[in-house]
Amino acid sequence: MKHVCILVPETAVIEAVADPRYLFSAVNQFLAAAGRAPLFEVKLVAARRETRLDNAAFSVHADLLLDEVEHTDLVIIPALSGNLSAAIDANKALIPWIIEQYNKGAEVASLCLGAFLFASTGLLDGKKCSTHWGFCNEFRAMFPKVEMVDGSIITDEQRLYSSGGANSYWNLLLYLVEKYTDRPTAILAAKYFAVDIERDSQAAFMLFNGQRAHEDDTIKQVQAYLEAHYTNKVTVDELAERFAIGRRSFERRFKKATNNTVVEYLQRVKMEAAKRSFETSRKNISEVMFDVGYTDTKAFRTIFKKVTGLTPVEYRNKYNKQAIPA
Question: N or C: which terminal CB in the chain sees fewer CB atoms within 10 Å?
Answer without folding.
Answer: N
